[in-house]
Write a structure and sequence with these properties.
This protein has helices at about 45-50, 60-65, 250-260, and strands at about 10, 25-30, 40-45, 70, 75, 85, 90, 95-105, 110-115, 120-130, 135-140, 145-150, 160-165, 170-175, 180-185, 190-200, 205-210, 215-220, 225-230, 235. It has about 260 residues and is mostly beta strands. It has a six-stranded antiparallel sheet, with no helix packed on it. The chain has a five-stranded antiparallel sheet with strand order 5-4-7-8-9, with no helix packed on it.
């Protein structure tokens, strides 16, 4: 009989985008409860050990986080199972490095290196807008933040630029046709393009049509679309490839030309 929440995760059940090899042990790190979902996050241990290669094993990861070297969104995190997720800023002051967690077009997390200035802010997608006690408006973001007294123009699906140190909204961008977006879920995850059309289906999933820089069009559900800038200019720097998905043939040509 199970008592309480699960505390373990089998290696075979871990999200495939963590890219853990299935022969290196039976267990995988189970992320703690936190701002991002279990299957849509990257725990700090996977980040330090398997991505950045700063640690060789579990114990070394523990040593690193317990020395308070790792900051996620400006807060020191000493839990190596803390779930960092899409758009989070990870700072390692010891190495003077700043990363933003973004997706590549193969649905994997990219530790995208950014400058110190860019590490001062992050983009947050508005999931809900409420009126709280004493008629004070507040908005809830994709990473579980509650922002009180947002601009009255800010609505669901819009994005806000947030100052990481103060937690205040610096700027916002509307979910409008012609704005640049990044896809944060579904089959087209990691692709970047401009909104061309929005299909409304009351009672069902709304569909958004997007066109990327290469001129290819694709469609996805509304809740997968994350606005990252006005017009065609994103407010954040993009990872290698600029969010353009290559076909299998194009991908092979690119890899072969790199070798020669």
């Amino acid at each position: 009989m199970a008592r309480g929440p699960r505390k373990h995760m089998k290696r075979m059940f871990a999200p495939s985008h963590w890219m853990l090899d299935k022969l290196k042990g039976r267990w995988a790190p189970r992320p703690s409860a936190g701002p991002h979902k279990l299957r849509e996050c990257l725990p700090l241990i996977v980040m330090l050990r398997d991505r950045l290669k700063y640690a060789l094993n579990y114990n070394e990861c523990k040593m690193i986080v317990m020395q308070r070297f790792i900051k996620v969104d400006g807060k020191v995190r000493t839990d190596m199972f803390f779930p960092a997720g899409f758009m989070d800023v990870v700072q390692i002051e010891k190495t003077k490095e700043h990363f933003r967690l973004l997706y590549d077009t193969k649905s994997r997390f990219v530790m995208h290196k950014i400058s110190k200035d860019e590490a001062e802010y992050k983009m947050c997608r508005i999931k809900q807008v409420f009126t709280g006690p004493k008629a004070s408006p507040y908005a809830v973001t994709h990473d579980g933040r509650t922002l009180r007294y947002p601009d009255p123009e800010v609505k669901v699906n819009d994005s806000v630029r947030l100052d990481i140190n103060t937690g205040k909204i610096l700027d916002y961008v509307k979910f409008d046709i012609g704005n640049v977006v990044m896809i944060s879920g579904g089959n087209n995850i990691g692709r970047v393009g401009v909104i061309t059309h929005r299909e409304r289906h009351p009672g069902s999933f709304e569909i958004v049509h997007v066109k990327d820089q290469a001129g290819k069009s694709f469609a996805t559900r509304l809740h997968n679309v994350f606005v990252i800038g006005t017009g065609t200019k994103p407010w954040i720097s993009l990872p290698k490839g600029n969010g353009i998905k290559l076909s299998i043939v194009e991908d092979r040509h690119a890899k072969l030309s790199k070798k020669h």
